[in-house]
Amino acid sequence: MKYKGIIFDLDGTLVNSVEDIANAMNSVLKSLNFPTHSYDDYQYFVGSGLRNLVSKALPSSHNDETQIDHCFQLMIEVYRENCTHQTKYYEGIIELLDYLKAHNIKLSVFSNKADELTKKIVAILFPNYFIEVIGLSIESLKKPNPFEALEICKKLELKPEEMIFVGDSGIDMQTATNATILAVGVLWGYRPESELIATGAKHILNHPLDLIQILE
């Protein structure tokens, strides 16, 4: 096979986590008597890290850095304890991962979710599939910065041209492009096809198992 490794985004690609994220943030907003948001709203808040999500969720009248930092800590405390209550992998994902593992494709995860939470969710929902799991630890290294994606390539001992980056957002497609990795967008996540194409997707998947055609 031309492609020997795959980097997956987490939220909106491997798992639907929007309910747990929304519930955690809304509980913080309620505790402060701020307006809450719908699950649909949170689909557009996710993707750039949880601190950025907190900023988007807060009312403009209470959006200074001190308030964001405070609410971010509150949100993390709630979310840490509830990050897999409603979070489920998408239909077809396990079948895809089983196929890839059986064919010796090296698998990894790169998310803008906090590193601790990324590793926790992957360990609980996807034991024994992924060689490398990287979340956000340094703000400047979050996607679309390609640094961590390229580090994953090195750790997997693969060249970028031997890799595929699978994600549901424009940020994922930009990350792949910046790392010269094949950008593959998915339609079961949180962003529309138009965003994926506009930001560099070379292939669009309607179902997880569609990825096999690209490998073959």
Low-confidence stretches: none
Instruction: Please tell me the total number of domains.
Output: 2
Major sheet, described briefly?
A: 6 strands, parallel
**Which structural class best describes the helix and strand composition?**
alpha/beta
CATH class of the largest domain: Alpha Beta
Q: How do the SSEs run, as a string of H and E? A: EEHHHHEHEHEHEHEHEH
- What overall geometry do the principal axes of the alpha carbons give? globular
Determine Rg (CA atoms, Å): 17 Å
Record the strand order, biggest sheet. Answer: 5-4-1-6-7-8
Quick recap:
The protein is of the alpha/beta class and 216 residues long.
Could you characterize the architecture of this molecule?
The chain folds into two domains: 5-16 and 88-215, HAD superfamily/HAD-like (Rossmann fold); 18-82, Orthogonal Bundle (DNA polymerase, domain 1), CATH 1.10.150. 45% of the residues lie in helices and 16% in strands. It contains ten helices and eight strands. Strands 5-4-1-6-7-8 form a six-stranded parallel sheet, with helices on both faces. The protein starts with a strand and ends with a helix.
Features:
DNA polymerase, domain 1, two-stranded antiparallel ribbon, alpha/beta, Rossmann fold, six-stranded parallel β-sheet, 10 helices, 2 domains, 16% strand, 216 residues
How do the strands and helices of this protein lay out in sequence?
Layout: E1 5-8, E2 15-16, H1 18-31, H2 39-45, H3 50-57, H4 65-82, E3 88-89, H5 93-102, E4 106-114, H6 115-125, E5 132-136, H7 147-156, E6 163-167, H8 170-178, E7 182-186, H9 193-198, E8 203-205, H10 211-215
Parallel strand pairs: 1-4, 1-6, 4-5, 6-7, 7-8
Antiparallel strand pairs: 2-3
Helix pairs in contact: 1-4, 3-4
